[in-house]
UniProtKB/TrEMBL annotation:
NCBIfam families: fucI, PRK10991.1. Residues 13-180 form the L-fucose isomerase N-terminal-1 domain. It comes from Paenibacillus albus. Belongs to the L-fucose isomerase family. The gene is fucI. PANTHER family: L-FUCOSE ISOMERASE. This is L-fucose isomerase. Its cofactor is Mn(2+). InterPro entries: Fuc/Ara_isomerase_C, Fuc_iso_dom3_sf, Fuc_isomerase_C, Fucose_iso_dom1_sf, Fucose_iso_N1, Fucose_isomerase, Fucose_isomerase_dom2_sf, Fucose_isomerase_N/cen_sf. Residues 181-360 form the L-fucose isomerase N-terminal-2 domain.
Amino acid sequence: MADISTRYQSAFPKIGIRPAIDGRRKGIRESLEEQTMEMARSVARLFAENLRYPNGEPVECVIADTCIGGVAEAAACGEKFSREGVGVSITVTPCWCYGTETIDMDPSIPKAVWGFNGTERPGAVYLAAVLSGYAQKGLPAFGIYGNEVQDSGDTTIPNDVRDKLLGFARAGLVVALMKGKTYLSMGSVSMGIAGSIVNDAFFQDYLGMRTDYIDMSEFVRRMDQGIYDPAEYERALSWVKENCSEGADNNPPALQSTREQKDKDWETVVKMTLIARDLMIGNPRLDELGYGEEALGRNAIASGFQGQRAWTDHFPNGDFLEAMLNSSFDWNGIRAPYIVATENDSLNGAVMLFGNLLTNTAQIFADVRTFWSPDSVERVTGHRLSGHAENGILHLINSGPATLDGTGQQEQDGKPVMKSFWDISEEEAQKCLDATSWRPASLEYFRGGGYSSDYLTRGGMPMTMSRINLVKGIGPVLQIAEGYSVDLPEHVHDTLDKRTDPTWPTTWFAPTLTGSGAFRTVYDVMDNWGANHGSISYGHIGADLITLASMLRIPVNMHNVPAERIFRPRAWSLFGTDNPESADYRACTNFGPLYN
């Protein structure tokens, strides 16, 4: 049976910690050895206690064997980091050190420096000097400097330093986790959607990933030749019949499929789900069945399914496939979600991957379908929006790829949340299933039939919507909108929902407004959104997305993250401080893609 143990072909990347020190002997270095090494150990403890890999295990740290006082020890540290699989680097010091002699020279590893704010030794002076060196050498690094002065014997990590260390490490691990992995394009371009024109250069140069491709006829071959685990298929089909409630058929009676055809569609969509997963990560059972090549998979950390229309005009749609794989549970129990982009929108798949790796939670894929102003809602329903929704709402809805975690049936302290899979209970997984109805597909859209998931996201969840767009002459740009899911009175939801296709999952989303730019009004958010799709993550993760984007050299063209939460490499300020958004573009253009 395929599970998370087969998802990664190599070990998870580790965080390397470099304790830098003043190399002068006969008193100076000796007096600083223990304090410097303790800084490194305290950072390692912080990460181990607060960060987890996608399988739920604590993040591992590697500390240099000795403090680094010059080029020889820097080289020895670099060799150890390479041997140990370090993907993120943090230098810590309480004192002056020799900047370019102790610098981390690996150009493809995200790097930061924590310079202890103490008066006994000039750690802040080293921090400024080494960051200047990093900028001069074209190796952007993040600078971390506490707001308050600490005593030399203080081994605690202040909250502001803690937040920056964790924010940097979360984003840095995403960079390292993506490197060397695959985006699997299952099919090609869907309905002329530009995002499903998979751009090899983007994935290679910015994310360090390769792209791989299969024609959707591979699904037909595997279904016809039985290239899937038959025992798992029988178990999955039985589980689906027990847990996936079939909803009302909205098709005109004359067009509705027969019961026999609907049952065959269930069999087909279950097989499609198994096959898509096996294509992504492989399945040892296939080797036992005589399919050694197919058993290997494609080392895909994310994928996309073309579906419309080359597939869906003849076969059942991919809605069940996408919704179940994007969820944190299936017939094999609770497990980490996969990342599968509907309509093979690889650019939305990329930000789904960002959100998933930052939070270890499932991601909602949705159309950014409609802006409903307060006046429009009142005109149509007689109801006046209030609370988070008082300035208007966005209707996020697509034909069924949204993760079932997005129902909001998981809870913490009585409030709806979307959890990491290791925190989800069996009861919560069942509630998500019970809150979802599987509606026979609209045959006007999907001539081949199939099933679409239908649910309503519970209100009150903090959420972040994001999207990458490619712009000729610039490259990728990222947009971010933090906000909240909102509840509407039942009759209001029904009235608005039935104006589009009511067989699809709905999230009512109210972005947080700033009063200026693209966030002056909710209408402006809709008007400035760069594509028809968005990825929605639980929590306000905009700051982490901005940090991650700067590491990858992807500028952010719109966001509503407060300035005090934004953390980019120190060199970004050298491109201007009055307009950080413009400086971001200039810095990303100057330094270029991380892997190019």
